Amino acid sequence: MTSTDHEPAAPPRIRTFHPRRGRMTSRQLDALERLWPTYGLTVPEAPGVPIDPAELFGRRAPLVLEIGSGMGDATAAMAADDPDRDYLAVEVHTPGIANLLDLVGRQGLTNVRIAEGDALDLVRMLPAGSLDAVHVFFPDPWPKTRHHKRRLIQPTHVALLRSRLAPGGTLHCATDWAEYAESMRRTLTDDPELVNAHPGWAPRPAHRPVTKFERRARTAGREIFDLVYHRAVAGTGG
Ligand SMILES: C[S@@+](CC[C@H](N)C(=O)[O-])C[C@H]1O[C@@H](n2cnc3c(N)ncnc32)[C@H](O)[C@@H]1O
User: Fold this and answer.
1) Prediction pTM value
2) What is the atom index within ligand 1 of the atom nearest the CA of 73?
C-alpha cells in the first residue's frame, strides 16, 4: 500500500473550453509540420518547468499573453504592428494554432510564439510579474448559469492572471455578451490590485483588430464591451 492510497481523489477539473476537433487545410497542416518546432510549445497538464520568456523569444522585451487566440488573425496583426513587444498566444484548438503558424511564417514574424494547451496551466508556468499585458478577446461566454464556472474571467483566474502582470501591466478583455461583460466588470473591479483605466467600459481601442466574432456580433446588432484594467503600482494607488 502506498501513502497515496487514502488520499481523496482530486476533483475533476473544470475546463473553460470544449475539446473540439476540426479539419485542417493543407496549408495549415504544412505550417504545423514546418513551423511548430520553431514557434510552438506544448503546455503540460502536470505542473511544467517554468518558462523563461527571454529564452523562449531569444531576447528580453515586454511580453503580451493572448489567451484563446482562435484562428490567430488578431494575434498576427497586433504582433506585426508592435515589433518591440513579444506575443505569446495560447490556444487548445489545433486548426487555429496551425492557422496562426501559417500567418507567422508568411509574414515573417519573429515576435510570436504559440502554446498548445490550457492557458491557465501556461500562466502558472510564467514568472510572477513577467507580463506587460494579457488579452482575453471574446472568450467563450458559457451563457447557461450552470456553466458560469467554466468562464475564463472569474475571481480565482483573474487573481492568477494579475499575479503574472508587471505592476502597471494591462488586462484587456472584450466580449459581445452583455451579461458576461457586466460579470467581468464586477470581477475585475473587485480584484484588490486591479484598477480600471476608464470610468466604466473602455473605448474600443484601434489596436484590437476586428475578428470574426466581433463582425458576427455587430451584424447581429450586439454591442461590444472592452474592459481595460491595470495592475496597481505599489505606493501610487494605481
Ligand atoms: C470565442 S473564441 C475567440 C477567439 C479569438 N480571441 C477571437 O477573438 O477571434 C475563444 C477561444 O478561446 C479558446 N480557449 C478557451 N479556453 C481556453 C483555455 N483555457 N486555454 C486556451 N484556449 C482557450 C477556445 O478554444 C476558443 O478558440
Assistant:
1) 0.94
2) 9
Given a cut of 60, whether residue 111 has pLDDT beyond it is yes
* CATH number, position 211: 3.40.50.150
Output the pLDDT for position 121.
Answer: 96
**HSE, side-chain direction, 13 A CA sphere, residue 200:** 3
Ligand 1 midpoint to CA 206 (Å): 21
Q: Supply 142's cell numbers.
A: 458559457
On whether 91 is known to bind a ligand per the annotation, the reply is: yes
* Number of other residues whose CB lies within 10 A of the CB of residue 134: 25
Structural domain span for residue 91: 26-231
The cell numbers describing 229, all together, are 484594467
Residue range 2-17, pLDDT digits in tens: 444 566 676 678 999 9
Residue 180 within a domain: yes
pLDDT at 21: 79
So which residues are the catalytic ones?
A: 140
